[in-house]
Amino acid sequence: MERAPERAGAAPKRPEQADIALELLVHGVGGTTPEAMLGDPRTERITGDDTAAVFRRADDVDAESRPEDYRDRPVPEAYVWCNLTSGNGARALWLLLLPFMVVNLAHWMRPSARGRTRVVRCYGLLVRLAGLTLTVLLVAAVCEVALDLTAWQCAGIEACAARHSWLGFLSPDVSHHGWWSPPGRRLALAALVPAALTGLLWYLSHRTWSAYESQEPRTHVREPEETTDRTALGRPGFWYGRRLVARLRAAHTAAGLLTVAAAVGLPAARFDHRLGGPAALDLLGRLLEGLLLAAAAVVVGVVCRRGRSENRLDQHLDNSLVRWLPLGALVLLTLTLVYAAWERPKWASSGRLPGDETFGAIAFVQGLLVITLAVLAHVLHRTHPDPRAAMRGLGGPAVALLACALGGVMSGGVAQRVADWLDGTRTAMPGPPVLLTWQASVIPPLLVLVLLLCAGLGLRTWRRARAERDAVERDYPGEPLDSTRSRRIARTRALAALTDRGPLLVAVVSTSTLLLGAGALVGALTTDETPADAGDRAPAFVQGAAETAQALGSWLIGLGFILFVTWGRRAYKDASARRTIGILWDVGTFWPRAAHPFAPPCYAERAVPDLTWRMATWTEATGGRLVLSGHSQGSVLAAAAAWQLEPAVRKRVALLTYGSPLERLYGRWFPAHFGPAALSALHHDVHCWRNLHRPTDPIGGPVRLTGACGPEVDRPALKDPLAYGRTERHPLPAPILGHSDYQADPAFAEEREHLLARLRPALPAPRAQDDSGRSSA
Fold first, then answer.
1. How confident is the model at residue 543, as a pLDDT?
2. Pairing of strands 21-26, 625-631
3. Is residue 493 a contact partner of residue 461, using CB atoms and an 8 Å limit?
4. At 439, is the pLDDT very low, low, confident or very high (cuts 50, 70, 90)?
5. In what order do the strands lie in the sheet with 625-631?
6. Cβ-contact 695, 702 below 8 angstroms
7. Lesser CB count within 10 Å: N end or C end of the chain?
8. At CA 499, angle to CA 493 and CA 442, rounded to 5?
9. What is the predicted pLDDT for the residue at 4?
10. Which of 227, 112, 348 is nearest to 643 (CA)?
11. Distance between CA atoms of residues 331 and 337, nearest Å
12. TM segments (predicted)?
């Protein structure tokens, strides 16, 4: 059942309403239903739409008009936002945008840096440039497949074109010679594929912005005592990055189109620059090269402009140069296609297009950006050291490197598999660029290193599980011991602790990727041979290892890309797969698109304003108390929404978090926004805060505030399971809950009642009934 929007909380304030309390529940990763959150099959939508909405039980819809019925209990409400991430099967295809999402995360992983504004801006600039190289890499990979492997190599070889009848009209064979047979025209036709992909990315970025991120936050006049140096999440424009996303979308779209233009025009220009070529075409080619270089400089300049405007709600867009940049690049691409399609009787396709130089330059620039980014992150971390920060502040550069590696794996996988499909024997076609083969060859040793690390972590977990058995028995004194039960609980605790070893895994993988990638780049650019060819001059063992690494790496890199596509297709038909993929985006797309406009959209730019508006309007309408109750990722949304409230409203709010990754994940990986200073500020800004956690929870953990704030916020770890053996209250074995069902623990209701009791004395009384209100409080 549904009701008209804004029914609850819209009634005029009445004096007796000041004692009413609201519990606003926010679910976590994976989503749920309002019926499950509220424990009632009869729920009604109070406000919102089919994407995200607030629900109440049918009996509680008009609770504000009956405050006397809620003197002893709060009114429960559920904010359901799961459709923002996992409500549509088509969103599973966002897996293909994974490198863009990962590099966007690197932007937010910088260390805290109060007073180092220039270094922070330079850090953000380098991440945006890394994101730009990923766009160029993706489009270049599609150009490699469509232009080089298909239109240039296979269509230009009679034997290959004969095996694929759909390429017959492109064949230069005399019997099939047609208008599209010249190399330039084949390239111009094939260029429509990467150009269409670039247009699709532009469309998706624009459409998802309108659907997810165009909600304006609730603005208020900032009071003098408010500070924003502890965390940026409380700034008015943090959750509304319209101007930057529009600017980056224009720049990246133009960069993609210019990459296509370069892939088509440069081979034709190289042919025209030879001695004896037509003077007119030679001059036109040099003119187009100059225009491409100038346009590329403009694109880089647009990306290098100042980043996000978080201190105010930025409603304006950039000047006409930025807005018309994609159209200008499209016009230049059109001119390049016409230029390449011009008749050149002596031009024939042979060998490869200049892909090695392109992919080599991209890999070199990405490595240089990551190393510089690591230097800046180290400087920021040393300014304000945070012992809990992941990798000592180097998490951002490591994740940026992994994003580049993912882009390379996906690019190489597509090229390798298409080359095998077009010419499996590799006897007629030269194949993909040598650099992609070298990059594929480093995959097996990297996987061996990762497997060794996982084996070490597994041994460490086994030892920890054995050590935890004594702790389990101490937590349940007087219980008859059951070795099987104790082992199961201890193993769950040990596996949950693996989350804290995530920085080690990322550090090893990123460092190994950087070293192996540098070796592959040097090998490809200095020898111009594949690893197997280079191994022919080495001993038999080395030659065999090189051939094995090249073949196995080629299959693995292709298999990884096929798994991405298969998983995406499966999500169209399988609701459980769609839900799993949605969980990935719950964690990865919390942050706004600050580094890459083609990343999956930020659901928090819809969810945080929703929560802020609901809390502010309800407290203004009723003057009541409010407990903001967040589980898992919902606790992160709750904290972000609390920071957006006015100080007067924030002091009416109590925060209850459980299974919360606020410190364990966000505090370690995003120290500038969820570090110790930010979480301490949140504790002081809200009226009161209580956090619940379990040792068996792999995601949630304690907040770990220092001093007296720590015990005040963190309740001692909850027992899980609630009962070791069978008891009168638990006649059947109690399950190990881990990250789920915190409300089943009696501690949840106990802490909620304590928070409501602590809220009541601090409430200001309604103005019309000042005396009576003070005495009742």
1. 57
2. parallel
3. no
4. confident
5. 43-48, 53-57, 75-80, 21-26, 625-631, 653-658, 688-692
6. no
7. N
8. 130
9. 41
10. 227
11. 10
12. 122-142, 187-204, 250-271, 283-304, 324-342, 362-381, 393-415, 435-459, 504-525, 549-568
CB under 8 Å to 42, separation ≥6 — which residues? 1, 57, 58, 59
Question: What pLDDT does 176 receive?
Answer: 56
Residue 677 has pLDDT above 80, yes or no: yes
CA angle in degrees (0–180, nearest 5) for 62-66-67? 115
Residue where the block lists tokens 């730019």: 605
For residue 89, report the phi and psi dihedrals to the nearest 5 degrees: -65, -30
Helix axis angle for 443-475 and 540-573, nearest 10°, is 60
Contact between residue 497 and residue 464 where contact means Cβ atoms under 8 Å apart: yes
Sign of the four-CA dihedral 580, 49, 59, 772: positive
DSSP structure class, residue 714:
B
> Higher-confidence residue: 466 or 410?
466
Answer whether 506's CB lies under 8 Å from 402's CB: yes
Q: Which two tokens stand for residue 115?
A: 């007073």
The count of other CB atoms within 10 Å of the CB of residue 453 is 16
DSSP letter for each residue of 389-442: SGGGGTHHHHHHHHHHHHHHHHHHHHHHHHHHHH-TT-SSS--S-HHHHHHHHT
Kindly give, in sequence order, each residue whose CB lies less than 8 Å from that of residue 669, ignoring residues fewer than 6 positions away. Answer: 109, 390, 395
Q: Is 540 helix (H, G, I), strand (E, B) or coil?
A: helix
Radius of gyration of the chain measured on its C-alpha atoms: 30
CA–CA separation, 159 vs 155, rounded Å?
9
**Average pLDDT of span 418-446:** 80
Q: Which two tokens stand for residue 500?
A: 């804290």
CA distance 72 to 75: 10
Q: Are the CB atoms for 670 and 390 separated by under 8 Å?
A: no
Kindly report, residue by residue over 330-366, the tens digit of the pLDDT.
999 999 999 998 888 888 888 888 877 889 999 999 9
The domains found in the chain, sorted by start residue, are 15-81+603-776 (3.40.50), 96-214+237-420 (no CATH), 443-573 (no CATH)
- What would the DSSP string read from start to end of 136-150? HHHHHHHHIIIIIII
Measured distance CA(365)–CA(407) in Å, rounded: 14
Residue 526's alpha-carbon distances to 366, 471, 529, in angstroms, are 19, 58, 8
Question: Taking Cα atoms as reference points, which of 311, 135, 121, 300 lies closest to residue 217?
Answer: 311
pLDDT at 299 over 60: yes
With contact defined as beta carbons under 8 Å apart, do 684 and 708 qualify?
Answer: no
Tallying the residues shown for the chain, one arrives at 777
CA distance linking residue 77 with residue 37, whole number of Å? 9
Angle between helices 434-441 and 502-527 (to 10 degrees): 140
* Confidence label for 173 from pLDDT (cuts 50, 70 and 90): low
CA distances from 432 to 270, 298, 351, 417, 445 (A): 20, 31, 10, 10, 22
SS3 294: helix
| Residues β-bridged to residue 629 | 25, 656
